[in-house]
């Protein structure tokens, strides 16, 4: 029974993925609320006057008050204004709103949760004005108790929506702060790694010179070969580290910590889920031996993609796939948000992924997923050729 329920929920999530899926869900929600409102308002409920001389106008205003919810996530503030206009119209001609109150309540939550902070403030102001107008238009029907109930209901949904939006924004800040801390840690490691390599190269160069002076060409060539190998490794590591650190971020401090790898991906997915974006992780194949640089690059790509899911879309869920092949490693991140290209505000989001992939002669594809949303797929070699 539980498995069947989980599968049903998963099908519903996939069906509502992407812009078209969300619009379809909003249309169905509007239709359901509208049907309930029409049944209550025209069905002879005791809370609604039975004798209506202007039934057509009542139906039209109810459709405006509730049917506008179909556009709630596309134009949140406009939808709130339309629903409130319909409700105020019902108050003027009828004195009773009935279940049509569902319209502005849902619209108020949407404006607070899915719009900007400024729009949410405007939404709260509009709701306050509408409540005052309703009381002046029908002070008899809207008793003091009713006014308190209405104000409490709207206040609750506005606070709930604001909490959802604030949680999403805090998640973005937390992810950015964690990324900055990791970059600063790597900055300190850069000096250690390159300092050691340069020291080895200086010693080997001095030894090669002395060997040439003594005529020991064989050992001199061996010393020069060691200098070449050390230089190549240093250049690769330097390009890798500088590619990660190219963004200018606000300075902060952080303790030294182990370099993250795909072994830590489960914890990353869990943090993103706790931040408000449910994320599913799928791992296939045997991990085996993976080059440390490739391991870190794959982790960073997944981290950046999930950060973009939080920052640049209205995604409600994401999926991470890690596939260990015989000679390659594939990571895929998809969400059900907007399908347009996304990256950090300074253009380094996707550019960073491309640089990390190109550094190891891998392949990267970004764009809309098959079912909508956004998809990032990176293929990297398990081992780096020397």
UniProtKB/TrEMBL annotation:
Its EC number is 2.7.13.3. SMART domains: HATPase_c. It is an enzyme of class 2 (transferase). It catalyses: ATP + protein L-histidine = ADP + protein N-phospho-L-histidine. GO terms for cellular component: membrane. Pfam families: DUF7134, HATPase_c, HisKA_3. The keyword Membrane applies. Gene3D superfamilies: 1.20.5.1930, Histidine kinase-like ATPase, C-terminal domain (3.30.565.10). This is histidine kinase.
């Amino acid at each position: 029974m539980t498995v069947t329920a989980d599968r049903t929920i998963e099908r519903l999530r996939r069906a509502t993925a992407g812009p078209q899926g969300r619009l379809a869900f909003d249309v169905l929600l509007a239709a359901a609320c509208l049907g309930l409102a029409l049944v209550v308002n025209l069905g002879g409920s005791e809370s609604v006057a039975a004798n209506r001389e202007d039934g057509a106008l009542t139906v039209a205003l109810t459709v405006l008050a509730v049917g506008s919810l179909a556009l709630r996530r596309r134009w949140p503030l406009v939808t709130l204004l339309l629903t409130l206009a319909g409700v105020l119209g019902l108050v003027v001609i009828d004195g009773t709103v009935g279940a049509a109150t569902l319209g502005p309540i849902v619209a108020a939550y949407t404006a607070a949760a899915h719009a900007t902070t400024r729009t949410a403030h405007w939404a709260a102001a509009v709701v306050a004005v509408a409540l005052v107008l309703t009381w002046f238009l029908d002070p008899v029907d809207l008793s003091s108790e009713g006014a308190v109930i209405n104000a409490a209901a709207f206040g609750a949904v506005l606070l709930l929506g604001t909490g959802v939006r604030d949680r999403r924004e805090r998640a973005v800040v937390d992810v950015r702060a964690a990324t900055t801390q990791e970059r600063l840690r790597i900055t300190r490691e850069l000096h250690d790694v390159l300092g050691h390599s340069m020291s080895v190269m200086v010693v080997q160069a001095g030894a090669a010179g002395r060997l040439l002076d003594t005529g020991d060409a064989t050992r001199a060539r061996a010393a020069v070969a060691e200098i070449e190998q050390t230089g190549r490794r240093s250049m690769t590591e330097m390009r890798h580290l500088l590619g990660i650190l190219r963004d200018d971020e606000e300075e902060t401090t952080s303790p030294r910590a182990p370099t993250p790898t795909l072994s830590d991906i489960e914890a990353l997915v869990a943090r993103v889920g706790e931040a408000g974006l449910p994320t599913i992780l799928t791992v296939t194949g045997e991990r085996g031996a993976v080059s440390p640089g490739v391991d870190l690059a794959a982790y960073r790509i997944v981290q950046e993609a999930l950060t973009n899911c939080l920052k640049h879309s209205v995604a409600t869920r994401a999926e991470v796939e890690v596939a260990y092949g015989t000679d390659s490693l594939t990571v895929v991140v998809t969400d059900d948000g907007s399908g347009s290209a996304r990256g950090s505000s300074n253009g380094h989001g996707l550019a960073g992924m491309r640089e990390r992939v190109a550094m190891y002669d891998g392949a990267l594809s970004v764009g809309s997923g098959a079912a909508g949303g956004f998809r990032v797929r990176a293929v990297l070699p398990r081992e780096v050729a020397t």
